[in-house]
Each structure stands twice: as C-alpha cells, then as structure tokens.
Amino acid sequence: MFFNEVESIAPFKSFWFTELINNIILNNADNVVWFVFFVAFAFFFIYSLILIYHWFKYGAGSFIIWLAMIVYFSISLALISAMYFSAIIIS
Length: 91
Description:
Structural class: mainly alpha
Number of strands: 0
Helix content: over 70%
Number of helices: 4
Transmembrane segments: 32-56, 63-90
Order of helices and strands: HHHH
Keywords: Membrane, Transmembrane, Transmembrane helix
C-alpha cells in the first residue's frame, strides 16, 4: 500500500474558490494590509464624528466632555499610530 504525502497534509480537497482567495491574498498581501488599515481608519473617523456630535448635542458644554475628548483622541491616536507602523512593517 503506497502512501500519498499530499493527502496526509491536506486530507480535504479544497474548492477552486478557496484556492482563488488564497492566491489573491498571498499575491496581494501588502494591498490587503493597507485595505484593512484604511477600512479601520474610516470606521474610526465616522464613529468619532458621530461621537463628537452626540457629546456636543447632549453634553451641554461641560468640562467633562472636553476631558473625555482629550482622553479618547489621545488613546485613539496611540492605537492608530501603532496600527499604521505595524502596517508599514508588515508590507
């Protein structure tokens, strides 16, 4: 009885669609990294605009709102910078 090495590594036959997706991701890994970064940044930007609108509309201009914005954007800037530098290193 002969042993096939390929079957032992991948016992399940993959579909053409999964092979296509794998090839696209492997060949365009840099593009995928930057796409994920820009999607996350766009989500952050839109979320922040909505958050600022609600803070100003319902916060009645209190000092706590300004403190919350400083903390929110400081932490967000640190996290987005880390994500940006990671994308540079990966690509």
